Structure formats: C-alpha cells, structure tokens
UniProtKB/TrEMBL annotation:
Belongs to the binding-protein-dependent transport system permease family. GO terms for cellular component: plasma membrane. Keywords: Cell membrane, Membrane, Transmembrane, Transmembrane helix, Transport. It is a multi-pass membrane protein. This is Carbohydrate ABC transporter membrane protein 1 (CUT1 family). It comes from the Bacteria. PROSITE patterns: ABC_TM1. The chain crosses the membrane at residues 54-76, 88-108, 137-162, 183-208, 243-266. Residues 51-264 form the ABC transmembrane type-1 domain. It is found in: Cell membrane.
Length: 277
C-alpha cells in the first residue's frame, strides 16, 4: 500500500514536471518548449508578488508560532491547575480547518461587523482596526489568524519535549543558583532541538500550502495584496486555463520546500541518532 501511494505521488510529480516544459493551456500537450514556462513565470508580476508575500508571511508566522508556542509550553509545564483544560483550549484551534479559521477571523476583523464596530459601540469612536481592507496591512491579518490556529501545535510538541527533561537538572540548577531564564536558554533550548526542528518543518510546510485561509479571508485582495503562490497556481490552473504555467509554478514551489526542509530534516535525523548513541 505504501509503495502504491509513494509511486502515485512520484509519478504525479514527474507528470507535472513534464507538463511544465510544454505549452499546455486547457489540456496537457506533448510538445516541448524547454524552460519557456519558467521564464514566463518569473516575468509575471503577480507571481513575484506572491513570493514576496509568502516570504514575509512565512517569517512572521514561523517566528510568532515558535515564540508563542514556547511560552505556552513553558507556562503549562509549571504544573498549573487545570492543565488538561488549558492544553485542550490551546490545541483546539489547530483541529479547525483553515477555511473555518479564515471565516471566523474575517468576521472578527470586518470593520463594519467585527472588533472595530464593537469597540466603537462601547464609546471609543476613534478606534480603527481596518487592516483586512488595507493593502499594506492585510497580510498581517492572515498572520494573526493562522498564528492563533497553529501555535497550539507548537505548544504540544515543545511540552512533550519539556516533559522528557530529567527533573534532576532543575534541582541541580537551583542548588547552583543558576537563574531560570539561563537554564532555559543554555540547557533546555538545546535539548529541545528535535522538537523545535519538527515544529519548524511542520510550520514551513503550512506556509508553503497557505491557500484556504487566504481564500476565506481576503480572496487574495484587496487587489492582489495578499496573493500567495498556492492561490496563483489554482487560479492559473482552473481560472485562467493555463496548465503549463501552473505546473511550472508548482514545481518551483516544490523545489523551494525541498531545498529548505530536506537539509533540516537530515540534520534533525543525525541529531536524534547521536542522542540515542
């Protein structure tokens, strides 16, 4: 079964790569135009904008999720009361689909119906929070929504790593008078490398796949201000009937993911093997 799934996956990639070297429009064709589609792709202003948006979004999303998830994990690791409830509350958003998350946050951020409207009704008539309709700020609203959803996953991964740390380490640190923050930075953080690297890989894949939240919240707008590669690919594949260009974009996105994730996964595997040696 695994070989069948793997074979179908590899064959699909190879087929997409072959189509990306053709002049296919509505249907795949058997001709060969070399790197013509790739040249057209990188002359496309919308594609370049989508890459810029994804780079900014990815940096903010990954850093925010790692920081917030780490803080939540450290907080729960203090054996707080109601730990089970808190874990469920923080992890629950991750169980939601990105479409549901996008729609909920679209309502919250809508200037006429959401947070801005509620605060103004409370008497703060000058309060403004209209990021979702501003081209220069809309991308940050997607970051807020998706960080809210994904930080619980980071919390769960890091909490598992924290619970695997020997309690004697903390006792020794207290005896030596080492500040708590120093223990976390110098000792705990390096020990959490496998959990952190796993979280980074999962978050990076989520960045590359970003589509549902954008469509649900902004449809890529205002204008093309929140355009991302996955939406570009879907639009050109189905909306503009340009299979060749969409396939070229898909291959570029795949190679980008592999170039970043594969070395990190290799380094993580080596670190885990050294830890077990």
């Amino acid at each position: 079964m695994a070989l069948t799934v793997l074979g179908a996956y590899v064959l699909t990639i190879l087929w997409t790569a072959r189509v990306s070297f053709s002049s296919a429009r509505i249907f795949p064709t058997g001709d060969f135009v070399g790197f013509g589609q790739y040249a057209r792709l990188f002359r496309n202003a919308r594609w370049l904008l989508s890459l810029e948006n994804l780079a900014l979004y990815g940096a903010l999303f990954i850093v925010a999720c790692l920081v917030l998830g780490s803080l939540l994990a450290v907080f729960i690791d203090q054996n707080v009361s109601g730990e089970g409830v808190l874990r469920t509350v923080f992890l629950y958003p991750y169980a939601m689909s990105f479409v549901a998350t996008g729609l909920v946050w679209q309502w919250i951020l809508n200037p006429e119906l959401g947070l801005q409207s509620v605060v103004r009704r409370l008497g703060f008539t000058d309060f403004t929070f209209d990021w979702i309709v501003r081209q220069d700020m809309v991308l940050y609203t997607i970051v807020i929504a998706t960080v809210w959803q994904a930080s619980g996953l980071v919390m769960a991964l890091l909490l598992s790593g924290l619970r695997g740390i020997d309690g004697e380490l903390w006792k020794a640190a207290r005896i030596d008078g080492i500040p708590t923050w120093r223990v976390y930075v110098s000792i705990v953080l390096p020990m959490l490398w496998p959990s952190l690297s796993t979280a980074f890989i999962l978050l990076f894949v989520m960045v590359a796949k970003l589509f549902d939240a954008v469509v649900a919240m902004t449809q890529g707008g205002p204008g093309t201000a929140s355009e991302v590669p996955a939406k570009f690919i879907m639009d050109y594949l189905f909306g503009r009937a340009n299979v060749g260009l969409a396939s070229a974009a898909s291959i570029v996105l795949l190679l980008t993911v592999l170039a970043i994730v594969a070395p990190l996964y290799y380094a993580r595997s080596r670190a885990v093997r050294r830890g077990h040696a």
